[in-house]
Specification:
It contains eleven helices and ten strands. With about 325 residues, it is of the alpha/beta class.
Length: about 325
C-alpha cells in the first residue's frame, strides 16, 4: 500500500477520476466535495484503498457540493457512498433543519475525523465566552449552511438566539477579513484545525479562541448527540498559548442502506485495516481511528459495519 501515495496524487494531478487508476469490478460512486476542499482528495485516498484491497471493487471519488447534496445523491440512488458531516446527516435522516422531510436509504459506516466548531473573536472585542457574544457583530457562516446550525445550537446552549446578536452570514474568508478590518467582532468556523482563514487572521491581526465547555457543553451534547468534545491545542494559531475546549462534529462515511451486508463489511474492514496508508496519502487520514469511528453517530449503522465492529470487539451502541 506504500505505492498508494504516488498513485493517488498522480490521479489528482492528472485531473482524472480515481476509477482510471483502479481495476474493474463493482461500480460505485463515492460522493465527496469540491475539488479545492478536503473531502475530494480524501475520498480519492479511500477509493484507492477499496479498489486495491477489496476484490473486484471499482469506486469513483466524485466531486460534489458536499454534505447535503451527497445525502440526496445516496437517497436517490445516484451515489452509494459519501463523505458528509454527521450533523447534516442527522438532519437528513430525521427531516429537520435544512431538510423538509427525512431522506430514505441512509446508513453509517463510521465517523472519520473531527471538524471543530471554532469561535474566534478579535482581541479588541473583549469577548472571552460565548455569553459575551450578546449584542456583538457575529458571522455565523453562509446562510443555510451547517455552520449556521452549529452556531444556533451553541448559542442556545448559553441561552442566546440569533436575535441576541448582530447576525452576519459570511464565508470563512469574509469572516476573517471582517474581524481584521473591524467590521465584525467574532465568527463561527466549522472546519478541521488549523483553518487557513483563521491562520491568516491570527498572523495579521490576532484572534481569541472562545471555549465551549462545562455545563453548557454537556447540555448542547445532550440535545444534539452528534457533537463530541475536543480540544484545540495551544499553538494551533499564532498567539494562542493555551488549549481551548470545543465541540466538534465529525466527517462521516455514509452508505446506501440497501447495499448488501458482505460488501459493506469488506469495505469497512479494508478501510480500517489500511489506516497507515490512508494517513500517508492524506494528512486527515492520521486523525482516523477505528475506536473513534463509532463516536458521534446518531443515524443507524449499516449491518456490514456492525459486523466488522462486532468482529473486533468494538461496541457501536
Amino acid at each position: 500500500m506504500k505505492k498508494s501515495v504516488s498513485v493517488v496524487m498522480a490521479c489528482l494531478l492528472a485531473g482524472v477520476s480515481f476509477v482510471g487508476c483502479t481495476k474493474k469490478g463493482n461500480n460505485y460512486i463515492l460522493a465527496t466535495g469540491g475539488t479545492s476542499g478536503t473531502y475530494y482528495p480524501f475520498g480519492g485516498a479511500i477509493a484507492y484503498i477499496w479498489n486495491t484491497s477489496v476484490d473486484g471493487m471499482n469506486v469513483t471519488a466524485q466531486a460534489t457540493g458536499a454534505s447535503a447534496e451527497n445525502l440526496r445523491l445516496i437517497s436517490k440512488g445516484e451515489a452509494e457512498f459519501a463523505i458528509v458531516q454527521n450533523d447534516v446527516m442527522d438532519y437528513a435522516y430525521n427531516g429537520t433543519d435544512m431538510f423538509a422531510e427525512p431522506l430514505p436509504h441512509l446508513a453509517v459506516i463510521g465517523t472519520l475525523y473531527p471538524e471543530v466548531v471554532q469561535i474566534a473573536a478579535s482581541k479588541s472585542s473583549g469577548i472571552t465566552s460565548v455569553a459575551d457574544l450578546r449584542g456583538k457583530r457575529v458571522s455565523i457562516g453562509d446562510a443555510g449552511s451547517g455552520v449556521e446550525f452549529n452556531a444556533k445550537q451553541i448559542l442556545e446552549g448559553y441561552g442566546l438566539t440569533f436575535d441576541d446578536i448582530q447576525k452576519n452570514n459570511l464565508s470563512f474568508k469574509e469572516s476573517a477579513e471582517g474581524i481584521q478590518n473591524g467590521t465584525l467582532d467574532a465568527c463561527f468556523v466549522t472546519a478541521g484545525v488549523p483553518n487557513s482563514a483563521l491562520q491568516e487572521l491570527a498572523f495579521t491581526a490576532g484572534l481569541v479562541l472562545i471555549p465551549v465547555t462545562g455545563a453548557e457543553a454537556e447540555a448542547i451534547m445532550n440535545s444534539h448527540n452528534f457533537y463530541t468534545k475536543t480540544v484545540i491545542p495551544a499553538g494551533t494559531y499564532n498567539g494562542t498559548d493555551s488549549n481551548t475546549e470545543a465541540l466538534a462534529i465529525r466527517a462521516t462515511l455514509a452508505v446506501n442502506a440497501d447495499i448488501d451486508t458482505n460488501t459493506v463489511y469488506a469495505m469497512t474492514k479494508a478501510l480500517f485495516e489500511n489506516l497507515e496508508s490512508l494517513g500517508t496519502a492524506h494528512a486527515k487520514g492520521k486523525e482516523v481511528s477505528v475506536q473513534d469511528a463509532v463516536t458521534g453517530v446518531s443515524v443507524p449503522f449499516h449491518p456490514g459495519a456492525i459486523k466488522y465492529y462486532n468482529e473486533i470487539g468494538l461496541s457501536n451502541d
